[in-house]
Amino acid sequence: MTTHPSPELLLAQIAQIKHMERGKLCILRHGPDGPYYNCQSRENGKNFSRYVPRDQLEAYQAAIDGYQRFCQLTEQYAQSVIQRTRSEWASDSKKKKSHGNSSSRRRPNSGK
Q1: Could you point out which of 2, 62, 73, 97 has its C-alpha 20 to 30 Å from the C-alpha of 31?
Q2: Exposure b/e, 48-72, CB count within 10 A at least 16 = b
Q3: DSSP string of 43-105, one letter each residue
Q4: In this model, does residue 23 exceed pLDDT 60?
């Protein structure tokens, strides 16, 4: 059985992400000094692209990786909280059923 990280641990990992950027790096064209890049993303329902200077290429890629990691961790966090919620509901439901079926319950005296 694999253990899943706790929601608190996931939040701590999310807090460690220092830079994020949506999108992906794409080569615009090849020039004499090498490729030129842009970062393509979707913002407010529209395609958006911005030029990425070569000296910022690694920082952009790290930020894109940070955003992808953020998405993975938040999905894990949501799944963890959902599982915990469902477990609590199932536990509450079992408590109500076991309490309702208790043999120690007495019927009201009919006064005879």
Answers
A1: 62
A2: eeeebeeeeeeebbebbebbeeeee
A3: ETTEEEEEEE-GGGHHHHHHHHHHHHHHHHHHHHHHHHHHHHHHHHHHHHHHHHHHHHT-TT-
A4: yes
**CA–CA separation, 72 vs 80, rounded Å?**
12
Amino acid at 53: P
pLDDT in tens, 36-69: 999 999 999 999 999 999 999 999 999 999 999 9
CB 33 within 8 A of CB 15: no
Strand order in the sheet with 24-31: 24-31, 34-43, 46-52
